[in-house]
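Troubleshooting log. The previous run stalled partway through. Resubmitting the same two chains, unchanged.
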Amino acid sequence: MLLLNGKPICLSCAQIKAQEAKTGGYNLEFAKIIDPTICGLCKTDYGSSELPVVGGMPACTNCAKGLYERPYPGWLKLTMAGLLLLLAGSLWRGVPYFKAGRHLVLAERAMDRNDYKTASAHFAEVLKVSPKAQKVLLLGAKANLMSGDIGGAQKFLNQRETYDSNELFMEVSGLWNRALNAYKKGVEAKKLYDSHQEEEAARLMHEASNEYPQSRDLAVAAMEYAAGIAFDHKDYDGFLRIYQAGLEKDPQDPSLIGGVASALACKYAVTGDLSYRKQAEQMLEKSRELSQQSPEDKARFEEFAERFHYRLESRVIIDKAEYDRRFRQEAKH
Amino acid sequence: MFFIPGFVISIATFPGVILHEAAHLFFCKINKLAVFDVCYFRIGNPAGYVVHETTSDFKKAFMVGMGPFFVNSFFCIVFCSAAFMPAWELEVSDPLAYFFYWLGLSIGMHAFPSTQDMQEIWRLMPAEARKFNPLAVISYPIVGLVYVLNLARVVWADLGYGIAIGILAPLAIFHWLV
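Second attempt completed without errors. Output:
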């Protein structure tokens, strides 16, 4: 039974009335007669007892409880529990990824503040977990190139055979080509130097250093070649200026400090001015202290210190080759 | 922009539908609203539904309507957290990571409440806002945004949202923690 305008109407009559309304082009609103004593869900007739209405429908206590406490199906609970367990396992298994990710974040931050050495160390850690990620490899190569370590950059770049072309790739590729070209010039300059074409070697090494200014090796070589020419020309002021300029850039380098000490010793040898001698000895002591940290620096210092003392005591200026020829080869015999 | 029928997307991302409906049910239960019918997933439109008692309590209507948005967003971030580092940042081929990415993005894609979900909020919101109910006041931009985003589903706004919170949120959280 339904209700039409507050009056009961059976289903067959309601269908006829609805058809008439449709033909006549007007609307009729039918309502379902709800017996408040019959549960809308389990259809149990509770006689004269009116049931509470839940969502417009009479519902008995048992059915109402079910409506308010509808449980989650077992498959859903099991699946969710399984997924959360799998997630926990995956997070535990992913600890190396998170550690690598931490290094990646720290590397990118170091790159932002142009601390390429730190960035390079962090990228090397990322590489252990992610040996193929283009972004990691290119950024790692860039960090190495920017800190002047072309060999370190090569290690990163060799991890992949091909790279997708993008802005970072173009940047790193440009840097790499420039660095490689500079190193080729550096090798060429070394050959010239070894064949006693010092002037041409110094010019080429200077060019190489300018082309790849991030390389400390090229910068030091260019400086040493230039200082060597000043020394050969007995331009000890120039010799001193070159090493002092180098020392300004890297005040903790024991060999640069040794270079300044050597130049000051030359000045003393030429002028006899004791203030130069005093400064030279101070610089030598500083060089000695700083060279203790590495066996190579220590060996280099000891070799140089011997010649330095000879220069101060004799006030005779000779280069290493001549010193070796005069004193060290004799010692061997 | 390419068109993929809704039922195909629903099938491909069914865990999101299931969780969305489970969240509706959860908020109905904690707000003591009767639930008459629940469909966690089906091939059709809508892909899932919860038929529940209406309420005149705005807070309850808000929780039931918007609850799945917060629940799905939360689980999207949680599941994608296990995947974003190897799959996105480190480009490591890890099947488990890809599985969690699919799961997280599926869940994130179904975070938006449907317009039907918002009907109760929409009905009660003006009267509550006039009473300066803060929840109703902040609901205006949220409801507006959800309506716009629902319309923008045709241009994959739901996938965009899933990616945004599945990738960017774990990434932002990780950067913040380091």
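Takeaways: The first strand of chain B starts at residue 35 and ends at 39. The mean pLDDT of chain B is 89.
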